[in-house]
Amino acid sequence: MASNFVSADAIRTLFSHAMSDMYKAEVPQYGTLLEIVARINAAVLQEEPALAEQLRASDQLSRLDLERHGAIRVGTAQELFTIRRLFAVMGMQPVGYYDLTVAGVPVHSTAFRPVTDDALRRNPFRVFTSLLRLELIQDDSLRAAAEQALSRRAIFTPACLELIAKWEQQGGLEQDDAQRFVDAALETFRWHRQATVSGELYKSLRAAHPLIGDIVSFKGPHINHLTPRTLDIDRVQQAMPDHGIKPKAVIEGPARRQCPILLRQTSFLALNEAVAFPAADGRFSEGTHTARFGEIEQRGIALTPAGRRLYDEILDRVRQEVQPAGDGSNKKEYLAALDRHFLEFPDSYAELRSRSLAFFRYGARPDAAPTNIALLPENADALEQAGLLSFEPIIYEDFLPVSAAGIFQSNLGDENKQAALAQSNRQAFEAALGAGVLDELQLYAQAQHASLLEALARLKGHG
Ligand code: OOG
Ligand code: NI
């Protein structure tokens, strides 16, 4: 049957717009943040024509305004399983495994995102998705109460489940179904003021860990933030207070650099929102909950395993010297240590490439002259030096566990708890997911290799 299926990219774009509109209505500061980011991005592009040109050349300019990620936290294996199927409809695959228990947060996570160059160019929307590790609740009766609360809820509407099944059967959705799917899927991520547990249970869950209270006590995995991409995160961080938004004390990730690497992120603190807990007499008791926040990020080049090792080593050294305090009291010392230690990380694209610390997308120079150098992948360096190949940074599309832990922690409210240290458990996560997670490093390596082969084929065409 010739199909009129809407592309996964188009469904993802519909959905990311719908989600952004919903979150703007729910959390007005997010709308303010979008405006600040748009204004500063425009200013940066005007002030730095070379950067604008580089973004244009690497096809990032067109995606910049719609680029954002979100985050959710689910409670059960079953929920995670269906979330994977839901995101598949939008061309989003689970990439990477993040164990946050090492940082005292009782979840493990993956990021659902598009994986091909084309899909990323059209809309790189991603959702950082965490699964609660219920087994880390020490108290047996509290764990049982949490399990019960989670087993009673249905986070997907019947229409949503039906359309996911239809997509799986047909291999696509036509226009009307695609729109119905987007509307239905959005319901899963909506905020609900009414909790599903008593105020008392909520308090105990929160005492076990603030995140457990957030994940277990409500009707569904409300979207807890949406994050636009900025071209100058320091400038946005500085501008936030002028608009009544209070950012977290320090920016997570590497120091500011000429050639941005990986990911730098900062957030503003969670709102204190009014909620209502069901009471025995059929009434509700009023309370508050802190869950939702805003975040911005600046993305840079993806690092090879060697580059990533160097990044992790340097960050580790910084944090052994100074742990950034949540209240910002040692911010100066932390930033000084960050700047000093990151001097060791090469800060030119040429050196990042010659030392194989980062991934690049190759292209054939349009004015390339015929050459005696054999057009083989292993001769890439010589071909580049002879002026035949160009290279552009491949942007990091994923997340960083230490940064993610910092973002989680800044948004858990005052009673910041350490979870019991636990064994990393990727197998259990993948079993719940019903699929393996893709290896992000392999995706970048493939993208680099494919671009090189294509560039060489072009040069042969010139030959
Ligand atoms: C997710 C925190 C991690 C990021 O950008 O690193 C994250 C959460 O709070 O659920 O979104
Ligand atoms: Ni985030």
UniProtKB/TrEMBL annotation:
InterPro entries: HGLS (IPR009770), YdcJ_bac-like (IPR047869). Its EC number is 1.13.11.93. The keyword Metal-binding does not apply. CDD domains: VOC_YdcJ_like. Its cofactor is Fe(2+). Pfam families: HGLS (PF07063). Keywords: Dioxygenase, Iron, Oxidoreductase. Gene3D superfamilies: Uncharacterised protein PF07063, DUF1338 (3.10.180.80). PANTHER family: 2-OXOADIPATE DIOXYGENASE_DECARBOXYLASE, PTHR39479. Belongs to the 2-oxoadipate dioxygenase/decarboxylase family. This is 2-oxoadipate dioxygenase/decarboxylase.
